[in-house]
Amino acid sequence: MEEKRNIEEIILNGTEDELAELRIWLFKESVRLENQESALSEQYEGLYRDEMAFKERMDAAEKKLETATRKLNNEKALFDQRLRILNNGFDQLNSDKKKLESEFIRLEREKAYQREDEYDAVDMLFRGVNSPLTLKKRYKDLMKMFHPDNVSGDSYMVQLINEEYRVRCSHYDMSM
Q1: What is the pLDDT of residue 152?
Q2: How far apart are CA 132 and CA 134, in angstroms?
Q3: How far is CA 143 from the centre of its chain?
Q4: Contact between residue 146 and residue 157 where contact means Cβ atoms under 8 Å apart
Q5: What is the DSSP string of 101-164?
Q6: Measuring CA to CA, which residue among 8, 44, 46 is closest to residue 26?
Q7: How far apart are CA 135 and CA 126, in angstroms?
Q8: What is the pTM of this model?
Q9: Terminal Cα distance for the chain, rounded
Q10: CB of 172 within 8 A of CB of 132?
Q11: In the chain, where are the structural domains located?
């Protein structure tokens, strides 16, 4: 404030030397202020450029993040889908395994019943045999009927008949 009065007093009542000195000072002050304004303007422009570059980097980072998030979500959805498929497959395999196990048990029971029926049938074929001679005759007749070369032949039945014949031969102490 005091400086302002001094300047006003020099302008109104000052000598030519004081006025020239004031002009020089005003010129220097004007140059200093212009330089300071120019420096501030350059600083402002630099800050503005930095701000724009920062915004561009932030935008690029946000786009990258969005892309990565989308990719992660897609991969997660794909993983979940594959996991569901695998779980369904394992469930189906377990179900099929249980079915196969129950079917295997059922077939084993059926085989056991079938074997019993076959042995009963073979036993029936040799029923009434009470001597080694009748055993040989019955065996020859059965072989003629069930031999695989015959039209109604059955190799499995021949095996069963041979087993039964061996067992019965051992009862009569005869060699085959």
Answers
A1: 77
A2: 6
A3: 62
A4: yes
A5: HHHHHHHHHHHHHHHHHHHHHHHHHTTT--SHHHHHHHHHHHHHHH-TTSTT--HHHHHHHHHH
A6: 8
A7: 8
A8: 0.40
A9: 147
A10: yes
A11: 2-106, 126-176
Residue 146 in tokens:
């069930």
Tokens of 10: 């020099």
What was the pLDDT predicted at 176? Answer: 56
Q: Which residue has the tokens 């045999």?
A: 129
Amino acid at 167: V
Residue 76 is predicted with a pLDDT of: 96
Q: How far apart are the C-alpha atoms of 176 and 163, rounded to whole Å?
A: 12
16 contacts 8 by C-beta, under 8 angstroms: no
d(CA 121, CA 142): 12
In the chain, count H helices and then E strands. Answer: 4, 0
